[in-house]
Amino acid sequence: MSALEDFKAFDVAGGALSLWTFRKSQRQGAAVPTYAGHWVGITETLEQALKAAIMAARDQITETIEYELLAQNNEGSALTLTTLETNAGLVIDAAKDELPAKKARKLKDLQNTEFYTVKIVSNGEVFHAICRANDSWKTKKFTGLLPVVFSDDELELEESPAFSLSKRFDFFVLADHVLISSKGNFESVMSYRQAHAHEFTELQAEPEFSETFTDIAEIINYVGSNKIQLRRSFAIRQKGHYKNQGFMEALRANHGQAGLKINFDAAGRIIPCAATCPDIFQALLDHRLMSLFSKQNYDVPSASTV
What we know:
By secondary structure, the chain is of the alpha+beta class. 31% of the residues lie in helices and 23% in strands. A hairpin with a 2-residue loop joins β5 (115-122) and β6 (125-132). The longest helix is centred in the first third of the chain and has 17 residues, at 44-60.
């Protein structure tokens, strides 16, 4: 079965549920982050509400799209990729057993939670519904404030500030598959942005890439720490069109016809500047296409072959 079919067939209602909260840290120079989790005791009412929310979210997904750095999904679709391509395995391992030592027993165990996962075990399979935590989990939200609750026609001090759980989930993990509803939150939780930044550093070090330009500094300034441009630079490296002499010759010959503002020196190297970097990236992604019917040029989010 497909990842979506497995997801649809999983017994959410009859499974054993536990709720885990996580904080994430990453040491300088470390390749992957560290995930520290606590499991939290919950009531039967909350358990049933979480299961209902997961089933409602599952019912909304009717199709899947293969995850690509520039791919986007809508309310009725999910992006898919394997767990081996993510840090999801670290979260799954950290939430493997509900040991007494890992149970949240104090308020500070829950404060500043970055994300949480609803873990369900059924018929030997383990399923995770993961969501980035909202501001109610942050201690700084209550700095300088008195948390109160309205009860019996009056306000009283709330000794234990409330947290809120979303009825929506950012991504789901089942077996070797990840289904993503919110790409941005998924990439934040799984530290994909840091991975993209590392890839961009390696891309700069490639002679075939750096020698494509008269000055790579303009490219570095253009990308900066912008997550969208980091995704695009990663996709440029994956596609590798800058390594293809035929592609680059065609770009030099046809960039004007394609409506791209790109300047070249006498040796055929690209002369980047702030004004032309967007078109340079469109070209290296092969995202500027011409319609055979209207003869118009179009920018496309994904150049998937058909």
